[in-house]
Amino acid sequence: MSLRTTGRPDVDTASVPADEEKWINIASLNKVYQARRSAPTHALSDITFSVRRGEFISVVGPSGCGKTTLLKILAGIVKRSSGEVRIAGADVTGPLPQVGMVFQAATLLPWRTVLQNVMVPVEVQGLDKNRYRERARELLRMVGLAEFENSYPYELSGGMQQRAGICRALVHDPAVLLMDEPFGALDAMTREYMNVELLRIWAESGQTIVLVTHSIPEAVFLSDRVIVLSPRPGRIAEIIDIDLDRPRELSVMSSDRAGVYVDRIRRHFNASVID
Amino acid sequence: MSLRTTGRPDVDTASVPADEEKWINIASLNKVYQARRSAPTHALSDITFSVRRGEFISVVGPSGCGKTTLLKILAGIVKRSSGEVRIAGADVTGPLPQVGMVFQAATLLPWRTVLQNVMVPVEVQGLDKNRYRERARELLRMVGLAEFENSYPYELSGGMQQRAGICRALVHDPAVLLMDEPFGALDAMTREYMNVELLRIWAESGQTIVLVTHSIPEAVFLSDRVIVLSPRPGRIAEIIDIDLDRPRELSVMSSDRAGVYVDRIRRHFNASVID
Amino acid sequence: AESGGAAAGEAGDDKITVAIASAVTGPKEEVAIVAVGTKMGYFAEEGLTVDTINADGSVAAAQAVASGSADITPADTGSLLAAVQGNVPIKTIGGLVQNWPWQIAVLPDSPIRSGADLKGKKVGVISLASGSAPYARAFIRDAGLQPDVDVELVPVGVGAQATAALTNGEVDALALYGQAYTIIELAGTQLRYLDNPPVFQGIRSLSFGASQRELDQDREKFVRFLRAAYKSMLFSAANPKAAMQMGYEVFPQILGGADPASRIDSDTKTLEKWLESATPLQGEPADWKSWGDITDEEWAKTQAYTKEAGQINAEIPLDRVWDPSLLEAANDFDAQLVLKQAAEYQP
Amino acid sequence: MTTAPAADEVTDEVAPAKPTRGKRFDLRERPELILVPAVFVVLVAAWEFLIPLLGIGDYVLPRPSRIVEALGQQLGNALFWQHLEVTVRESIIGFLIGVGTALVLGTAISQVSLVEKTLMPYIVAFQTVPKVALAPLFVVWFGFGITSKIVMAAVISFFPMLVNVIEGLRAADADRIQMLTVFGASKLQIFRMVRLPSAMPFIFAGLDIGIVFSILGAVVGEFIGAKEGLGYLLLQTNYNFDIAGMFAVLIVLSVLGLIAHFIIRFAQRKFAFWAEESRVIAA
Amino acid sequence: MTTAPAADEVTDEVAPAKPTRGKRFDLRERPELILVPAVFVVLVAAWEFLIPLLGIGDYVLPRPSRIVEALGQQLGNALFWQHLEVTVRESIIGFLIGVGTALVLGTAISQVSLVEKTLMPYIVAFQTVPKVALAPLFVVWFGFGITSKIVMAAVISFFPMLVNVIEGLRAADADRIQMLTVFGASKLQIFRMVRLPSAMPFIFAGLDIGIVFSILGAVVGEFIGAKEGLGYLLLQTNYNFDIAGMFAVLIVLSVLGLIAHFIIRFAQRKFAFWAEESRVIAA
Ligand SMILES: Nc1ncnc2c1ncn2[C@@H]1O[C@H](COP(=O)(O)OP(=O)(O)OP(=O)(O)O)[C@@H](O)[C@H]1O
Ligand SMILES: Nc1ncnc2c1ncn2[C@@H]1O[C@H](COP(=O)(O)OP(=O)(O)OP(=O)(O)O)[C@@H](O)[C@H]1O
Ligand SMILES: [Mg+2]
Ligand SMILES: [Mg+2]
């Protein structure tokens, strides 16, 4: 199965003279949630890193350390408390059109069929529906939901909903893709298959991807770099370059080099005792 | 940290002269979903197996194969299309009081604090609130949510919500525990820690546990037996006895025997090509 | 709350509830009859305690009487006829308003001088389902025109609404009753009236309708009520200002929050206007005789008019509607004494 | 009518044995087909026979037989159908205006908090004012014709719809809004794709109340000063002491209300099916 | 009043720099504190000066200055306070009865579909009947005293509440009901722990409409046949050609409605906070 990317020129980013090395640039980012009925929660503390254009970066860290918060700040739907966040040179104060996102909970619209849900970004951005509908169908076929395109979300299993959410984030071929545990509800095999497909799509499209995941091997397999966060408040514990050749096959994970990376990241988790 | 079980005598089950070997008994179970606007979906096909009293059994299978459906039928909230389903000798036509469940989506009540959410089964079953509140707090401490007991669900991260859902299923010490991917949203380390805790609680309480998981090593580490389902419509592909000594430590997973089990289960998945 | 009804100390044994056929209390029957009768002790003398309720219109008042919420009502005679035709157990036992109260009015500078001038014009009536519509139609017919063809009827209500309609030119004339005009004039709008043709002479407006059941049980009670009522009317005619003051005392809500001193003059005028229609136009109060009588000729005219208006569809045998047998005893009172009381009245 | 399942029916997911919408009516499946007429018969019979026993005269509450007679008479009268048509027209136009305004204003109010703070007090204040008391003004402003009745119908159906629209548009799930926001949706798109669908149960509740009240408003408007319409007919029959005729008109009004209600409910099942279905077949 | 955020304000999660509920009012933060009075002043001024210009007589629409004068006079009158008290009492009792009945009946209807099918048509039918036309009946049944007005207030506030209660209780999320079912919750517990909280936005919409309408109902009831109450006072002032006085009463009614509305909204923020907060601070 081949998935052509639509090759849509990225008008917005192209027009900005931004540093390719610091395509996404985060500096001294802090986030405090100020709940009305409970104490404030310090979610992110002094986060600084940048992402190259076309880079695949993963973020790992213990549950509740602020990974989702970080992605949502990048997506422009959660306000930072302080610090700098830029994508393609532009200060992120709201959602940018070239950004797509896979949410931790699938968040499908119950009044739309699966296909209509996948088409949401196309509709929203006023793209050519007929052209993109084909792409949407192809993506659904890729994730094994071809026969469910006319089903409503409540007729899908948890993992199927999540896969629909992934198709939705990919359909309009966004220049920057934020993925919040996209494969969390999938079985190991489907997950590995999806990993491979994601790498292929990424290679074809040249997207910049920030992936949050709980699976350390997955992070190593997919990424150019892995950012390890410490427990809440999330700080950067380490940023690890994954120096494995591309294109990668699943077999690379049985290599020693991959194992070293996995162990190195694991150590961070061992250090962080819960309670 | 010690977690006493409350040792509540299981009145309902004790009064039924049920076969300890077939504590949960499923025979020729079929399930077809009859959606109004799309074609019927055959979710489960001819499922037959039984679970010993006090057994820990895991169900694995590709996404959408009917695992959640199976648990919901056991929980009495989804009607089977045909076949027999019994728990402790009683035909399951509705929810049974001695059954607890962890849902795939946490499903917390937004108008209740975390502690109040965990106390739901206690309240519903009219148990002594003061006594169980302590247990609820202990469970929250165990899963690392001690300082969030007065927070509302929207203030929690995805993994934190899931952990609260686990506490809720454990708080009233149900005789039968159904768990639908309880650790899916957790990072590897928290997950392993929770696995160990779960085994300890299980050993102390003698519960019968049916766990749905996507992690094959997790299934092997925790279970007495692993049921492998084929892709939709879910059939039983194999039932594998996990003959590892108890109590188990995490280190057992690096043993060859464990590896053999994991590989054997993995093979089923390799056979099932998606799309 | 201190609300209407028998406020006087000396209460009688028998209770009578009067249904006022109007949702508001004003300088009309409730003042001239109930307030004066109560304050002057005429009811007490007869061993009666009188209370009032407000029913929204003559039909509702008749229903209230028939269903036992009230004993008697001064209601539109046409409605009483219609009630009888509908087998409502209610009987007319005495007349009240004897002079035709309805009139056509125009603005002073209006070109309309006679009924014939109404051709092609619009006449404002209270509502198409009220006494003013059949009156307007009859008036137009008498002028040789065809109602609803030559002249359009427009429902405009009373008071401010009617005034606005007339002054804005939405209608060219109004068809209201005397007292409603008085209120309009007192509020500062000048009016000119068209003469009513003779056809309207003798058509009865308000009459007393009593519950047949109560009547069968205790006729005497109604005789006593009528007597006190007519005495009160006589008193009011002789001293309307005093009557109005009693009205304020018994029904303080009449004022609607206004200062009595600022209203007494205009309210007295309104009451006079009402009394004018309810008592003989000629002669001195001392000579007024046969209170409440309705002649057979008047009944015939009233029946014909009511039939024309569509309220009844056939003439009704008089004995089903009309029981004049109480009137003789009801007229048995010392008019001179009442007049003396009126003349010498001190608040 | 398919309704949400009771708690213990949640398990009742369409089992193959049980046909969901059979063409033939099984009375055990649809007991209402017997019960509704049965209740009707019992009520009417009780009314017919109790009224004389209780000594309530026909002039206050006529017996059904009388009313049916009067109804027959009315239905045979061409003028009656004119009255009916006028009231229906006033109600529908009034309803559309009232509900439309409520939708627009409710949207503005729920989306722009400044609009709410500036306008809402005046709307509430205006709403408590008894419109019947404002009749003179209405008539001066909107004339003696059909307009003032339409305005009355519009005004009275406006408020329930407004409150429900505001509440409904606010009830949208924040996660869904965030999702759309990320994909670059404009406020309008978010409104159309999330807020409006989420508000549907509220909007249909508002429509249901609104349509019933707009009929009421038109009739009350006709009380004030009208030459036609069922409200006028009510006054007329009442004035003529034709109480049975009056009740016949009241029954026609009830039937109008019922028809309107069922149209709204039907539309709800057509256009807001997901809420219903996901509730019934949830898993 | 804190309201839901507009689409692009979703991002507006409480940033530390921005105090959420400062003790001191910053006018840039709360422009309504200027805007509401400003709108008021503009409206009143326009009213005051346009009326004579347009040649509208004081007997149709009196100028505000006159109304204020009349209002002062009313407020200084003991009888006025009695009228006010009567209407307030009727409205509150009627509201409680109407809304209470709607809660009970709405619960029954939403939970037992047979009850819905059997009762709902009659309720809708009854609702379209203009109660004003039934006045004589009301009065026969409930007397000329306060009861008939209370019934009127109850009847008119009943329906909006009923429809919202039914819709609201049905809107509960099926997954949450399943969750409780698994833990062995009874229908009553599911009702209390899930359905009722989920229905809160609907219930408060119903209460808001209901309270405003119950005042209207009481006043209309007083039109039919009363000796006290603000509705009666309206008729009386109108009859007396005291149009300014009538408007004074209308203003008092508006203020009553406003107070009732704000009490309901306050209760909503107290008792249904989660909806509001999770919307504002969603993440
Ligand atoms: N309410 C429903 N209506 C119709 N079809 C449904 C419904 N619920 C589940 N299904 C279908 O039944 C099949 C099994 O679903 P189920 O949720 O049991 O899968 P699962 O094994 O739990 O998958 P996952 O691992 O993705 O959660 C799927 O094909 C799904 O589309
Ligand atoms: N809306 C909110 N209001 C208050 N606190 C919040 C809110 N959202 C998140 N938090 C808090 O911020 C912290 C980080 O949450 P976040 O969702 O970013 O974690 P995460 O790393 O994505 O965790 P997980 O892996 O479990 O999804 C948590 O402690 C959480 O309680
Ligand atoms: Mg997260
Ligand atoms: Mg599942």
UniProtKB/TrEMBL annotation, chains A, B:
Keyword Secreted appears in the UniProt entry: no
Gene3D superfamilies per record: P-loop containing nucleotide triphosphate hydrolases (3.40.50.300)
Domain ABC transporter: 24-256
GO function terms (MF aspect): ATP binding; ATP hydrolysis activity
UniProt keyword annotations, A-Z: ATP-binding, Nucleotide-binding, Transport
Keyword Nucleotide-binding: yes
Domain of life: Bacteria
Name of the protein: NitT/TauT family transport system ATP-binding protein
Automatic annotation (TrEMBL), chains D, E:
Domain ABC transmembrane type-1: 80-264
Main location: membrane
SUPFAM superfamilies with a match to the protein in the record: MetI-like (SSF161098)
InterPro entries membership: MetI-like (IPR000515), MetI-like_sf (IPR035906)
Keyword Chloroplast: no
GO cellular component, one term: plasma membrane
Membrane topology: Multi-pass membrane protein
Domain of life (superkingdom): Bacteria
GO annotation terms (biological process): transmembrane transport
Transmembrane regions listed in the UniProt entry: 33-56, 92-115, 122-144, 150-169, 202-224, 244-264
Keywords, comma-separated and alphabetical: Cell membrane, Membrane, Transmembrane, Transmembrane helix, Transport
UniProt subcellular location: Cell membrane
Annotated family: Belongs to the binding-protein-dependent transport system permease family.
This protein's name: NitT/TauT family transport system permease protein
